[in-house]
Amino acid sequence: MPDYRFDDVIVADDTQDIQSYLAEAHAAKIRPLCLCLPDGVPMYVAKAGKAFIIKRMPNSGATHSADCTSYRPPEEISGMSQVLGEAIRENDEDGTTALKLDFSLSKQGARTAPTASGLTSDTVRADGAKLTLRSTLHYLWDQAELNRWTPGMAGKRSWYVVRSRIVAAAERSVTKGAPLSTQLYLPEAFVSDQASQLRQRRITHMAGLASSQKARKLMIAIGEIKEIGAARYGFKLVAKHLPDFPLMMEEAIYRRFRTRFANELDIWSSMESSHLVFIATFGLGATGIASIEAIAVMLVNANWLPFEHMYDAMLLDSLVQQRRRFVKGVRYNLAESKPLACAVLSDVPLHPSGVALYIRKPGLEPHDIAELDALAEQSEMPSWIWDASEEMPRLPDNVLKVEPPAPPSEPVESAW
Fold first, then answer.
1. Contact assessment for residue 87 and residue 333, using Cβ atoms and an 8 Å cutoff
2. How far out from the chain centre does Cα 272 lie?
3. In 3D, which of 42, 40, 35 has the Cα closest to residue 1?
4. What is the pTM of this model?
5. Is residue 333 within 8 Å of residue 132, measured between CB atoms?
6. How far is it between the farthest Cα atoms of the chain?
7. pLDDT of 228 strictly over 70
8. Angle at Cα 357 formed by Cα 355 and Cα 361, nearest 5°?
9. Burial 170-182 (b: 16+ CB within 10 A, else e)
10. What are 170-200's pLDDT values in tens digits?
């Protein structure tokens, strides 16, 4: 956690009376400095209910040290810059973030075959005006800091932790005029002897979906896929921690889903340690059965870090094994054909702003290689590139190299 400077006073982020400093700064409109860098980086104080929170200034994430909690990767590392200011608007008055979504949370009239929002043209398009379904998942993962890694996190990430952090991120976000958290459902970690209480809390949370109006309300569900199989009519998705509440899929959307996310499904099937996270909009029928309207998925590894392909996963495993600190890049709306750095190393003393890690996958076309190399070359951030058809090169050092002292010179014999 960074320290902050309030005029001539330095205060730790976890100090007991941090709220009093924040309240005074908010009243006096003082901008505290984040001391992740020697000269400090301006922050602002927002009021959220009765509490005060300190937040980075809009569009300033890349100006922080790469190991700071306020750091946000630059354009070549994250697709967020493409949607920030349009699909994502930060409010520096109350600390909330307004989101524009390109998918609906209501459905008019009788139920029809769901739209194929798993198709490339819908969920992964280069359009900064609105967040697609999958880029909404990327946003929540990013805001929950689940794409960050330090050695101390090893063995401490579980679905309970993942869920808690995403719910907290959703509470700070607003869409369609309401907190995103009220329109979002993530299953609680399942405990068999608490099954009835978990079921009742789920029913209560989804009570707003039951409506006799022509426009049926929808919610967003996020969870880990346990299995997708045939049902008596159509197909059903069973989420982990949600054994008694399958999400039904009509055959039309299931077929499009299998086509659009064939690569993710193949990797998930072959990597026992991976998780396949889904995000879907769904509604409830009169019988209380949930039906999916749109769906997208994201691969994450055993540490819940997102990845796109096997080479991505190999580099992440190497970083974790070598106990490195890093931020994983996520695409948001950036097209999959566009190059993007895999991650930013945040523990390189010679480069406090971070080092970008790129992967040249085997089989890339010459113009794709040229585009990736140009991205790395034009970036102000130092780069490391792995040609995945060859052995992985040594990663940048995470310790300062100290030159050994020069050996003492030979004593000069006295003329006497």
1. yes
2. 22
3. 35
4. 0.85
5. yes
6. 111
7. yes
8. 165
9. bebbbbeeeebbe
10. 998 999 888 999 999 999 999 999 999 999 9
